[in-house]
Amino acid sequence: MDKITSLDRFRVPIGNQDIELQQMEFEAGGMPLLRLRIRERSRFTIFDIDPVTAERWARTMLEWSRAALADQEAQGKP
Asked: Among the four residues 31, 36, 58, 72, which has the most C-beta atoms within 10 Å?
């Protein structure tokens, strides 16, 4: 049986999507994958991401969020 471990789950304040990050380990073996589940009402979007892709995606998101927050702070916005 495949093993699914929940890593984080949260709701997006704008758009109200339910996001869950899971680690997928397949019984047949192979590398673990990061599963990103996005629920919008009754519709689901699911991405299974390898570690290299997850790192690139995370790095890009972190760089963007830091720049956006710094810009907001510079403009005096909360």
From this structure: 36
The DSSP bridge partners found for residue 4 are 24
Query: Which residues 6+ apart lie within 8 Å of 59 measured at CB?
Result: none
Q: Evaluate the CA torsion angle 53, 56, 59, 60 in order and state its sign.
A: negative
Amino acid at 29: G
Selection from 2, 51, 8 nearest residue 25 by Cα: 2
Amino acid at 55: E
List for the chain the helix, strand, coil content (%; round to 5). Answer: 30, 40, 30
User: Per residue in 32-50, pLDDT tens?
Assistant: 999 999 999 999 999 999 9
